[in-house]
Design goal:
Layout (H helix, E strand, L loop, with lengths): L1 H15 L3 E3 L5 E3 L11 E6 L5 E5 L3 E5 L2 E5 L11 E6 L5 E5 L6 E6 L2 E6 L8 E8 L4 E7 L3 E5 L4 E5 L12 E7 L3 E6 L4 E4 L5 E4 L13 E4 L5 E4 L5 E4 L4 E4 L12 E6 L5 E5 L4 E5 L2 E5 L11 E7 L3 E6 L2 E6 L4 E2 L7 E3 L3 E2 L6 E4 L5 E7 L5 E5 L5 E3 L6 E9 L3 E8 L2
Parallel strand pairs: 1-26, 31-38
Antiparallel strand pairs: 1-30, 2-29, 3-4, 4-5, 5-6, 7-8, 8-9, 9-10, 11-12, 12-13, 13-14, 15-16, 16-17, 17-18, 19-20, 20-21, 21-22, 23-24, 24-25, 25-26, 27-28, 28-29, 32-33, 33-36, 34-35, 34-37, 37-38
Length: 419
């Protein structure tokens, strides 16, 4: 695990400090003036298995699909609160809805276009900030992150369990903000000023809090787990933070030039481990093997730099909930610009390409390092003593990114290996 963490950190450090990608325009922006959105402040967004787009606003539930728009309110349905703050999709693709404060004893779920009420105990606040469903071989569970407790509901025996000051006095905060699940490590929960909470599969609890653990910010607004098992944390003051079950590392403007802010609100991770970050003051940031992309009100049609939630649909679309409407971004066709802090050049540094893995270096500059990464971001070749011949014949067929560093520039080339 530690090795995976260091590999990904190398990639982010190399490309965030040296390469920018110019964001193309936001593909579509929906707001109250050009659509049937019921309110301009969007708190959360999710897409279901039928590709319906569910939009939670400060006033009303909205649905966008091929048939158009549909809306629900407390005044006309069983929706328990018009101020929607979270969504969760269960095992049957039913939509569960977390609100702010309207109903103390119930919260809503929507099944087959009808909204029902589900009773919740008094130990759980009406402020439901995240909803997560986990299915194992033996049980189906729903996790609620609320401002007063972490609640766990077992659908098998219809039983609630709680983690708060009364049941877990070692907690630093019982205000839970966000949830993620890793099959080997269990539940990760972010808290408000209480650090990172880890409920392991064996029932043991670990709380990571404060500078002694290396956590740069005890408030965590979102948590996600990537394909390598790295935990990613969105913090309002500590930047984008990664955790490999041993060490925390932060990506922020102080240590990664070009990264626009320390205030991260939300995270979405693709199957290729592209990391999309919503921020509180700088729009949207994409980190991937090719560099860093920024979407904001200055370089795109995004209508607000305050991002409340991000949702990735089938690795092809990003939906961004903002304080001034909903933005849809196609994840492909984002192009490299010539505006670099540190010169980066796309060149034909090696040939032949495609090849069987035996490459000849054409670059004549003084080379300090040659690195090769696969499409998931793993470092597969690295040398500080390069020769003219590079042997990558041991790699599997596929595409890779070649990175050549000199004293004054970085040279990148996509290479294909087939044999």
């Amino acid at each position: 695990m530690k090795r995976k963490h260091s590999q990904l950190t190398i990639i982010i450090y190399t490309f965030c400090s040296s390469l920018f990608i110019q964001a193309q325009n936001i593909d579509t922006v929906y707001h109250t003036n050009n659509s049937s959105l019921t309110y301009h402040t969007i708190n959360t967004v999710i897409t279901d298995k039928a590709q319906n787009v569910w939009i939670g606003t400060e006033y009303g539930l909205n649905l966008l699909n091929a048939d158009g728009w549909q809306n629900w309110f407390t005044e006309t349905s069983n929706l328990h609160d018009n101020a929607i703050r979270s969504f969760g999709l269960d095992f049957d693709n039913s939509l569960w809805i977390g609100g702010f404060q309207n109903d103390l004893s119930n919260f809503s779920f929507l099944k087959n276009d009808t909204i029902y009420l589900h009773e919740k105990p008094a130990e759980l606040s009406s402020f439901i900030r995240d909803i997560l469903f986990v299915e194992t071989d033996s049980t189906k569970m729903m996790f609620l992150a609320t401002s007063s407790s972490l609640g766990i509901y077992s659908f098998n025996d219809e039983y609630w369990q709680f983690y708060n000051f009364a049941t877990s006095p070692y907690l630093r905060s019982q205000h839970f903000t966000s949830l993620a699940y890793d099959a080997s490590k269990g539940i990760y929960a972010g808290t408000l000023n209480g650090g990172l909470f880890n409920l392991k599969n064996n029932g043991n609890i670990r709380v990571l809090f404060g500078e002694e653990t290396g956590l740069p910010d005890n408030t965590i607004l979102d948590v996600a787990v990537d394909g390598n098992g790295l935990v990613w944390l969105a913090t309002p003051e500590g930047g984008l933070v990664s955790y490999d079950d041993n060490t925390f590392e932060s990506i922020n403007p102080d240590n990664k030039p070009g990264f626009p802010t320390r205030s991260i609100s939300s995270i979405a991770i693709s199957t290729k481990n592209d990391i999309w970050c919503g921020t509180l003051d700088a729009g949207i940031v994409l980190l991937n093997i090719e560099g860093l992309v920024k979407f904001n009100i200055e370089n795109s049609t995004l209508l607000s730099n305050k991002i409340n939630d991000l949702h990735l649909q089938n690795d092809t679309l990003i939906w961004a909930a903002t304080d001034n409407g909903l933005a849809k971004i196609c994840t492909s066709n984002k192009t490299v610009s010539s505006n670099f802090l540190f010169p980066v050049h796309k060149v034909d540094a090696v040939y032949p390409n495609p090849s069987n893995g035996n490459l000849i270096l054409t670059q004549k500059h003084l080379i300090l390092r040659i690195s090769v990464y696969n499409t998931t971001g793993s470092l597969v070749y690295d040398t500080f003593n390069p020769t003219q011949n590079i042997n990558l014949s041991y790699l599997q067929n596929g595409s890779y990114l070649l990175n050549i560093q000199t004293e004054n520039a970085v040279y990148v080339q996509k290479i294909l290996i087939f044999y």
